[in-house]
Amino acid sequence: MATTKMSITELDDDIVRSMSIGAVFSDFGGKINSLDFHRKDDLLVTASEDDSNPCGIFPCMITDAFATSKDIKTVGGDTAEVCDIKFSNDGKSMLLTTTNNNIYVLDAYGGEKRCGFSLEPSPNTNIEATFTPDGQYVISGSGDGTLHAWNINTRHEVAAWNSHIGVASCLKWAPRRAMFVAASTVLTFYIPNNNPKPAAEPGSIDTPAGSQSEQMGQ
């Protein structure tokens, strides 16, 4: 099997032109919905439609080390399809979003659940959740058109907003700024307010009644 230890700093036109398939894995029970590379270590995480094996973690050195890949079959008994998966920038956590709008933060190495949150369903639309660059907060949309933010260390919701764009299917935090974007058919930028209003309780910040998210138990 082929192997690669080449750093990204060595990349040039000739190397890009020389890229070819080095390994193939075809034992997935369904389409792969999402994947992400670890920011520091040679790991790749995948999420597929296979209900019996929705997530897999693979070492990324293309060698026999792939035999050490592990599966995350379910999280807390939730068998819903994982539609989005990503690592935090510090490499310590993974973020999973399911088709029934449950969000899980897992330990990136062992796969243990750190916390989870449940949001309103969004039929026919998959939501996206994102880490802040420091890995301390998670931001997500919801099926009722709201946006939510949680501190993953305290496991508490710290803010909620009305998105004003319906269900946000895309959500990203800027890597170098205190700013995130949410999008449906409209793109919206969220930035700090220089003249903030008095603080309100999470779930009541520009949020319709009854739309507060629910924290999931361990």
In short:
The chain is mainly beta.
Name of the CATH architecture of the largest domain: 7 Propeller
Task: Measure the end-to-end span.
Answer: 41 Å
Major β-sheet strand ordering: 5-6-7-8-16
Assign the CATH class of the largest domain. Mainly Beta
Report on this structure.
The chain is an all-beta fold and 218 residues long. The protein has two domains: 106 residues, Methylamine Dehydrogenase, Chain H (7 Propeller), CATH 2.130.10; 86 residues, no CATH class. The chain contains one helix and 16 strands. Strands 5-6-7-8-16 form a five-stranded antiparallel beta sheet, with no helix packed on it. Strand 6 and strand 7 form a beta hairpin. The longest helix is centred in the first third of the chain and has 5 residues. The protein is globular and about 50 Å long. The N and C termini lie far apart (41 Å). 29% of the residues are buried. Keywords: Nucleus, Repeat, WD repeat. It holds the Pfam family WD40. InterPro entries: Swd2/WDR82, WD40/YVTN_repeat-like_dom_sf, WD40_repeat_CS, WD40_repeat_dom_sf, WD40_rpt. One of its GO terms (molecular function) is chromatin binding. It is found in: Nucleus.
